[in-house]
Amino acid sequence: MKSIIDYIEKNLSAERLRHTYGVCDTAAELAKQYGADTEKAYTAALFHDMYKGISQEMLETLAERYGLEERYKNNLNLAHSKLAAATMEFEYGITDKELLDAVSYHTTGRAGMSLLEKILYIADATEPGRDYPGVEGLRMLARHDIDKACLVACEHTIKYLESLHRSVDPDSIEARDDFIKKENYMKVNENTKSIAFAAAKFLDEKKAEDIVIIDISGRAAFADYMIVSSGNSERQIGNLADDLKDKLAESDIIAKNTEGEKSSGWLLIDFGDVIVNVLTKEMRQRYNIEKVWGDCKFIDLEGEI
Ligand SMILES: [Fe+2]
Ligand SMILES: [Fe+2]
Fold first, then answer.
1. DSSP output for 151-171
2. How far is the CA of 118 from the centre of ligand 1 (A)?
3. How many angstroms is it from 211 CA to the middle of ligand 1?
4. Where in 167-296 does DSSP place strands (E)?
5. What is the pLDDT of residue 102?
6. Residue ranges with CB less than 5 Å from ion ligand 2
7. Angle 138-140-144 (CA atoms, 0-180°, nearest 5)?
8. 303: pLDDT confidence band, cut at 50, 70 and 90?
9. Residue 58 and residue 87: Cα distance in Å, rounded?
10. What number of other Cβ atoms are within 10 A of residue 241's Cβ?
């Protein structure tokens, strides 16, 4: 197989080469941190800017060879990503779609980016040689929230292009809108999580026992969190349910429905995205609700368990 290292060592300027290796190291570090394939991240980075800085003539030759879409033809800034991906596929025999897409979209981003795409996108913007206002903050953000970091980088690029009155590729706009949507979803989800914690904390104060919060968001469509707790008697579970409803109502969180009778030993209160079960110890043991959700994340008041 052709060596991409030989190619870039021979054809890239010293500055571009240093940038490329910077992106390689940053992409591999991020891949390790986020559980992606470090080798793929490094490989994608080696290829990503192989055509940055080519002549107009070479651009035209490559554009012709790979049937480059019209919208990229007079824009080397966009064309270099697409042409690099095509070269990886047709000259280096790389068929891994994830790898090709990471290189293809490293300049614009797009809606629904894979983890590898995000890693290359953000590594490109934050490698150690990058120096622009806000880059240090972006580096820190990339290490703990790659989606948010991509959103910031994407907004930065769009604003920059707009300030120069240059056109913004539709993929970049769609990428930004997609990250905003995710960000809003996370906010809603954080809010739901805090309701679940508030409910669990209140039950704890009221002496409910063995309280667990189960994150069922990945498994169920009807709610995000399920709380399971026990009381010592039918009377206590009735009181716990009533008091919890009153408590949450103070914050305008109104129970949609309560199922079961305290005499049955099991009350289920539906707060929408949070479902609270209060059971007598006997019923808790008999039904073992936790077992149904065994593959979900369990959290107690101290944190994850
Ligand atoms: Fe690039
Ligand atoms: Fe780059």
1. HHHHHHHHHHHHHTT----HH
2. 14
3. 51
4. 209-215, 225-231, 257-259, 266-270, 274-280
5. 98
6. 49, 124
7. 110
8. low
9. 13
10. 22
Report the amino acid identity of residue 261: E
CA of 52 relative to ligand 1 center, distance in Å = 6
- The domain made up of 191-304 has a fold known as Beta Polymerase; domain 2 (3.30.460)
Q: Which amino acid is at 135?
A: V
Asked whether 211 and 265 are in contact (CB, 8 A), the reply is no
Ligand 1 center–CA 181 separation, angstroms: 26
| Arithmetic mean of pLDDT over the chain | 92
Q: How confident is the model at residue 278 (pLDDT cuts 50, 70, 90)?
A: very high
Give the model confidence (pLDDT) of 120-148 as tens digits. 999 999 999 999 888 999 999 999 899 99
What are 61-113's pLDDT values in tens digits? 999 999 999 888 888 889 999 999 999 999 999 999 999 999 999 999 999 99
Nearest ligand to the C-alpha atom of residue 20: 2
- 270: buried, middle or exposed (CB in 10 Å: 19+, 13-18, 0-12)? middle
Q: In the numeric block, which tokens belong to residue 209?
A: 């026992």
**Distance from C-alpha of 138 to C-alpha of 115, rounded to nearest angstrom:** 17
CATH topology of domain 4-168: Hypothetical protein af1432 (1.10.3210)
* Residue boundaries of the structural domains of the chain: 4-168, 191-304
Q: What is the Å distance from ligand 1's center to 29 Cα? A: 19
Per-residue pLDDT band for 304 (boundaries 50, 70, 90) equals: low
Point out the ligand nearest to the CA of residue 80. Answer: 1
Separation of 11 CA from ligand 2 center, angstroms?
15
State in Å: Cα 20 to ligand 2 middle. Answer: 6
From the list 141, 98, 115, the residue with the least C-alpha distance to 31 is 115
